[in-house]
Write a structure and sequence with these properties.
The chain is α+β, with helices and mostly antiparallel strands and 476 residues long. The protein folds into three domains: 6-135, no CATH class; 161-242, Phosphorylase Kinase, domain 1 (2-Layer Sandwich); 248-475, Aminoglycoside 3'-phosphotransferase, Chain: A, domain 2. Helix content is 40%, strand content 19%. The chain has helices at 3-13, 32-43, 139-150, 204-214, 250-259, 265-285, 293-313, 321-336, 376-379, 386-401, 408-426, 434-455, 461-475; strands at 57-69, 78-88, 97-107, 118-121, 131-134, 153-155, 158-162, 172-174, 182-186, 190-194, 197-198, 225-229, 235-242, 248-249, 290-291, 341-342, 355-357, 363-365. The strands form four sheets. The protein has a seven-stranded antiparallel beta sheet, covered by helices on one side. Strands 1, 2, 3, 4, 5 and 11 form a six-stranded antiparallel beta sheet that branches. α5 (250-259) runs parallel beside α10 (386-401) and α7 runs antiparallel to α8. The chain binds adenosine-5'-diphosphate and the ligand O=P(O)(O)O[C@H]1O[C@H](CO)[C@@H](O[C@H]2O[C@H](CO)[C@@H](O)[C@H](O)[C@H]2O)[C@H](O)[C@H]1O. Residues 1-28 are annotated as: Disordered. Residues 13-28 have a biased composition (Polar residues). It is an enzyme of class 2 (transferase). This is Maltokinase.
Length: 476
């Protein structure tokens, strides 16, 4: 654990009371976590957002506990905010003690409407005999969270901030989406993203949308409020943004077009333009260090390292490693001939699911967290903008590959249109330096192989098909 993180533990443990309590609650004591641990052992690894799948949890430790509503049952359901480390055996650079955010509802018995949110019945300790559950599914408790943003300030180990007024009484619902975190929608006006795996240090999903809002870029919903666990390096816990009502994500739209046998060219071109506008605004808002010889070698070394780690984790990649490496070596050669490319902050995990198209055809980009599996400092590092372009190009390939019959021309037309739109808005055609584009596409496909092997093994053939194609064209 880093020094910053461990000092945060000390700070958080000493502040487990709520602002409204005169004395720390007797319920939140040293016996709380041991009494919840057997339930969390069974429940946590089943959650889609649990990042340590496939490795047994060997124990839990408490980072902070904040009683947001009394747990003694006197005022209806209780609400407990927990930051908990899940200890696991270390594996290929994945940390052994990820910190997770849990919002735990506490009731004497659970109404049937909340059955799907059940964590379990506590056997001993301060909550013995009570039922605990994922509080985000309880409209009463989800409503309380929004109330906290309306009255910002400190509550136990948590600090709430906002940039503008928030109306009262908006009805909450949990978003039913395949996601790496959890989101609540309030009255179709706001969306609150609750980060599940949390890190000390600035979360780019707050940092970049705030920087873009300052720059006047309207392609990204501006943060209205957020909450964090303060400390030398605060942990960002959640961000509230305007909800783009009626918008549909690019993945659904692309699949609908494929099913109807329709092209997606105008949409792809407009999306290229939107991406370029976001890149231009990010380059204005934040530093743009040049990428020279040594850094080019470092960039390539990181790509090779990721490839090797991926081949360790997914043996199906092993036969392709030598050919894929040539795509990275081509960038080193390009670097020797000059380099000097401008790096900047980028989205970092751009794909069709991260683009929302409003009914008037306007594209917005969301989810600036970067690739969830990478360490935070890597996700915040400036990169070449072609990295995002490569991510979106992979996504057109994914859409075409996941639909029967496979229509490679559909993907090729989208990919070309996207690059055209990008070039029109930025003045730079990403296809102008094919070595850079290919290396970034290869790096992304390697990431996807690991992602799918870990989270959705049925999808593994999709990035593996790209790996074969990229390896063949590198060898040609
Ligand atoms: N501002 C928004 N307006 C409307 N829907 C949104 C907004 N932000 C996110 N969503 C929806 O929530 C889903 C999950 O959001 P995302 O930020 O990608 O979460 P995660 O990082 O957990 O995957 C998106 O796919 C999208 O459908
Ligand atoms: O949206 P997240 O931040 O959770 O991103 C992760 O999950 C994505 C899948 O939901 C994954 O994206 C991959 O699958 C998409 C189709 O479902 C495809 O459009 C993308 O191109 C492909 O990378 C993403 O890689 C992962 O980080």
């Amino acid at each position: 654990m880093s020094e910053a993180a461990s000092s945060h533990v000390a700070l958080a443990k000493s502040t487990t009371s709520t602002r409204n309590s005169a004395t720390p609650s007797s319920t939140v004591d040293g016996t709380l976590l041991p009494s919840l641990a057997p339930l969390l052992h069974a429940w946590l690894p089943r959650q889609r957002w649990f990042a340590g799948k496939g490795r047994p949890v060997t124990g839990f430790s408490l980072v902070s506990a904040t009683e947001m509503l009394p747990l003694d049952g006197t005022a209806g359901p209780g609400l407990l905010h927990l930051l908990v480390r899940a200890e696991q055996l270390e594996q290929s650079a994945h940390p052994a003690d990820d910190c997770y955010q849990l919002l735990v509802g506490v009731r004497t018995s659970l109404p049937t409407t909340l059955a799907a949110a059940l964590i379990g019945r506590v056997e001993h300790g301060p909550l013995a005999g009570r039922t605990v559950y994922d509080a985000l599914h309880d409209p009463r408790l989800a409503g309380l969270l929004l109330e906290r943003f309306r009255r910002p300030g400190t509550l136990g180990a948590l600090r709430f901030e906002r940039t503008s007024a928030i109306p009262a009484g908006l009805a909450p619902r949990v978003l039913d989406a395949e996601q790496s975190n959890s989101s609540l929608v309030y009255g179709d006006a706001y969306i609150l993203k609750i980060f599940r795996r949390v890190f000390p240090g600035a979360n780019p999903d707050l940092e970049l949308p705030l920087a873009l809002a300052r720059e006047g870029c309207e392609r990204v919903p501006a943060p209205i409020a957020w909450f964090e666990a303060p400390g030398p390096e605060p942990l960002t816990l959640g961000v509230l943004q305007p909800f783009l009502h009626g918008a549909r994500d690019g993945w659904q739209l692309a699949l609908t077009a494929l099913t109807a046998g329709r092209d997606f060219v105008p949409e792809a071109r407009a999306l290229g333009r939107a991406t370029a506008e976001v890149h231009t605004a990010l380059a204005k808002a934040l530093p743009t260090p040049a990428l020279h010889g040594t850094q080019t070698r470092q960039l390539v070394a990181r790509m090779v390292q990721r490839l090797e780690a991926a081949a360790d984790a997914v043996p199906a990649l092993v036969p392709y490693v030598p050919a894929l490496r040539t795509a990275f070596d081509a960038v080193t050669a390009l670097g020797h001939r000059g380099g000097g490319w401008a790096q900047q902050r980028v989205h970092g995990d751009l794909h069709l699911g991260q683009a929302l198209r409003s009914p008037d055809g306007f594209w917005s980009l969301i989810d600036f967290e970067g690739e969830p599996a990478r360490p935070l400092d890597e996700r915040r590092r400036p990169a070449l903008p072609v990295r995002d372009v490569a991510g979106m190009l992979r996504s057109f390939d994914y859409a075409a590959r996941s639909h029967r019959p496979w229509n490679p021309e559909w993907a090729a037309r989208c990919r070309a249109a996207y690059c055209e739109g990008y070039a029109l808005a930025s003045g730079t055609d990403p296809r102008g330096e094919p070595e850079l584009l290919r290396a970034h596409e290869t790096d992304k496909a390697v990431y996807e192989v690991v992602y799918e092997a870990r989270h959705r093994p049925d999808w593994l053939p999709v990035p593996m098909a790209a790996i074969q194609r990229l390896a063949q064209s590198a060898a040609a």
